[in-house]
Amino acid sequence: MTIKQTLFFFITTFFFQATQAQQEFGLYFLNDTWQSNKVNPAFMTDQKLTISLPGFSNSLYFTGPTYGDLVTERGGETVIDIDQAVLKMNPENTVREDLQIETLNVALQVSNWQFSLGHSLRTTAFLVYPKTLPQVIWQGNAQFIGETIDVSNKVLLQSFHELAFGAARKFGDKLTFGAKIKYLNGLASAYTNPDHNNISIRTDDEFYELGIETDYQLNSTGVVAINSLSDFDLDFKIGDSASESLITKNVGWGFDAGVSLELDKLTLSASVLDIGSITWKDSTRTYSTKGNFEYSGLDISGALTGEDVSFDNVVDTLDNLLEISETQSTYDISLPRKFYLGAAYQLTEKLRTGLVYFNEKFEEDTFSGISASVNWKPNSVLSIGATYSALFEQEEFANIGISGILKLGPVQVFAVTDNIVSLFQVDNSNIFHGRVGVNLLLNSKKNRE
Amino acid sequence: MLKNLIAFCFLLLFIFSACNKFGDLTDADVVTEDGEFAIPLASAQTDFSDIIANFDEKTFVTIDPDGLIRLQYKGDVATKTADEIMEDARNSIPINLIPVTDTVFALPFSSPEELEVDYAELKGTSLVFWINEPNFEYLEFKARLPQVLNNGEYFEFDTVFTEAPNNWFSQSFFVGDHVLVPENDSLYIEYEAYDIDGNRVKLDFFGIFIQDLDFSYVEGYLGVRDHDGDRDTIEIEFFESWTGGDVYFVDPKIRINLVNSFGIPTRSVIRTFDIYTADGQTIEMEADELNIDDNQGIDFLFPGLDEVGEATIQTFTFDTTNSNIREVLNNKPIALDYDVDAKTNPDELIDVRGFLTDSSFYKVQVEVEMPLYGRASNFIAADTFEVDFSDFDEIGEAEFKIISDNGTPLDVETQLYFIDPSGVVVDSLIKNNEIIIEAAPVDNEGIVTNRNEKITVVDFSAERMDLVQGVKQLVLQTKFSTVHGGTIPVRVFSEQDVEIKVGMKFKRE
User: Fold this and answer.
1) Cβ contacts (< 8 Å) between B500 and chain A: which residues?
2) Which of B6, B10, B14 to mutate to test the interface with A (most CBs of A within 10 A)?
3) Residue-wise pLDDT tens digits, A129-169
4) What is the pTM of this model?
5) Do the beta carbons of residue B104 and residue B146 sit within 8 Å?
6) Residue B174 in contact with partner chain A when CB distance is under 8 A
7) Quick check: ipTM above 0.90?
């Protein structure tokens, strides 16, 4: 696989279509949509029966270079400018991606209960890489002569089916509890062991002797195949994964729970989502390398003593330098655990305001933020909203989101983004979020009343 | 309603417009202006003990206590035994039936080499008597050989015949444990025969047949004899890869090693002693001992009569004081061609008595010794390597960094030629023939006093890289000179070493 293919893999994976941040502030306040139940299982719709048709959402957050930093035009051709991208990188850079393709969801209300069943195809990804890694790969190690650089990185990628069964119950007029249990079926994954993800490289200043210290373990199911340093395959296409493997032996469970309390015009709510993990054990490969490896070039001492010297093995020697071993093993990948804490206040019949706090813990990293919203529903057809969000760890404090719901008869169409500016300034943005969906709303409560 | 719809569609449009932005990356090229990679290319370390360990089986190396290396090239060991002389001794006595025509009869001796045997020890020999006498009804017979002794007792035989089939009598006597002590260079046999009346009679026929005559020891004057040694060639590997330049050895030697257990005077006769050189010359060694016309040669030491079974060891050395060896071995010798014969009793001194045993031998071995003490000037050696650079076609311009750490007293000027498949030199690595390995400094004795490190940087442009992509051979030509341009003799010791490291920085195309 060429370096260009490697770069393309990262780009298409992490810049896939419209992208979203992993939090969904705007969706939290779209209580008129069934999809708000995804961020709090206690949120119930007004319909007896809701059928959610295919929709998708995507969140992307990354630090370092933007699209505009990475891509440029030269001579009429679109090229990927590594030099410019590297200039914009931080010492450590993060990419966080969440994609959900929802196929079908059904929610049915019976008495004080709401039961739901739905399917979606999800992909979560998390990548942490040092600036030195792309520098070494594309710009070379000559700039680091005499130094030891750390190119340790984290890779987490998993794609899976999610089949969710939910139940919510209203207690009296005010209190609602909801929960979901989700059956997870893993399709493809790549995951570095967090206890073994270290690689450092030293280029000696005398005659550029290479010293590589590794303690690195990459687990993969259907994504990575490594034969040597120069012979490896990266193959991850969500569509292919889903069509080839509807059911696998990589099984996991997830759990969501939420609560909502209505106090006159004030509604307080909280939820915890994606508590769970997937155990990967089918068609798994674990690639490991550990040790101190040195390469001093070809030993031509034989030439000085009259022996024959062959240059044939140089490439093979470098290829096998890290002594990468391949085994089969079982590993677990956790889902990114999310927590929402919200408050909404109905200012007028048509105007509602809200505040929500979000916290996500994924691997050993934490993302959190806060958002203020206002939703205006001028009539029964249209509802529009706006959010203002601040993301603390990302140090993004000016995220303006908008949302819109259009209801035409029983058909409800909605769209929401937490960062409208990024849609206008794709080249310069690093937080992207968007969700669209279509629902069929049948037998609303108001109609029944 | 319509406004609502349009507003909503704008929102969707904004979202999806971001999606399409990334679709153009599929075919985009990755560009970088500043990419440069550094890798170690090759390294080598060797000391002279490694170098000499890889000499072929014909090169012997000794290392003096002080570490000075001496290269020795040895010829095959030519061994001659006493078989030929023993054959002469055996042939001096007839092998057919000898008629004893008188009661005291001297057995005939004749040796073309004029052997004079003073004493001999028999082995495996038998005497067979043949008697024919019509009157075997009664015959008293005695025979003795006074010069054939066993423990001081001479051989004798006596018997009384009363009958004999067809009047012939034959009997064999093993005398392999007897010695011969000729009298006046003769062996006598005496017999007495008496009839029934006690009258001494002369036998009608008495003959003696010496069967399987052989000696384990012979003493006396054993004649003059030439012994033909096999012609041999010593290959000298040192100059095998030479293509030019001079090497001067301060104190080379050629030795003739002799081991001799012949107890008789022996002299080597050197018929051929020529040096073949790397540039096609044939140079004759000159020394007094090599003048065969004047019957010169090297006299072997030989064991005395009281040193039977021992062997003398002797070495004759041709060096700068007694030969033209310096001239010969400083002309890039690649082989020594020699033919060394021997002659026993060359001076025909009959009064000098010697001995031979059945295990006597002499061995001759010639060796060339070249102590690595000398000087070299532009001594060139070349080696060819097969290569394939097809895996490195993405390399643009490059810079080679060559680091040498030299503990030997040799300057090394190296050039690497790139040869294309048609044998044409398309480029060379180093311009202006720079010395990339500089000799370590030496004192007045030619002994290294310190190490010498040097760094050489060679630039290789992208155009040159393209030119050498298709080469299939590299020719490494190395020119050695001792320190100061080969003007000072230096000593080479086994622990002296040199280390070379080559790194490369390159940019990708």
Assistant:
1) 300, 304
2) B14
3) 999 998 998 889 999 999 999 999 999 999 999 999 999 99
4) 0.68
5) no
6) no
7) no
